[in-house]
Amino acid sequence: MLPPRPRTAPSASAPLPGAGMPQERLAQIAARLTFVDLKHRYAAAAAGVPGSRGEWLRLQVRQTEALSDLWMLRGAVFSALSELDSDRASLARIDLYSALSSVFPDDDALMPALS
Q1: DSSP tag of 86
Q2: Does residue 31 or residue 6 have the better pLDDT?
Q3: Which one of 12, 34, 51, 61 is most buried, counting C-beta atoms within 10 A?
Q4: Interior/surface letters 33-49, b for 16+ CB within 10 angstroms, e for the rest
């Protein structure tokens, strides 16, 4: 299980650098959309994993709050999908690998093989 993230309220007295600037807001929106898309792909991949392992993966995916959380789950998801012998699991692995390599393009050495 992923460690809980500390919940802190942003300070009203200390504005963020660049907050309110159009490019900053667009960058925040793009990052959020990327996270949501990747989280949906993880959820779709975990949906095909049966049993308690699948339940655990689905719970972990639901609890993610950042791209780093999803990155830490990649090994568990790929491992579970590689143990399934179905076309759906193979397609889910390929889709997830493609999505991860577009979000983290320099980390191909850390990604599992798709054999």
Answers
A1: S
A2: 31
A3: 61
A4: eebeebbebbeebbebb
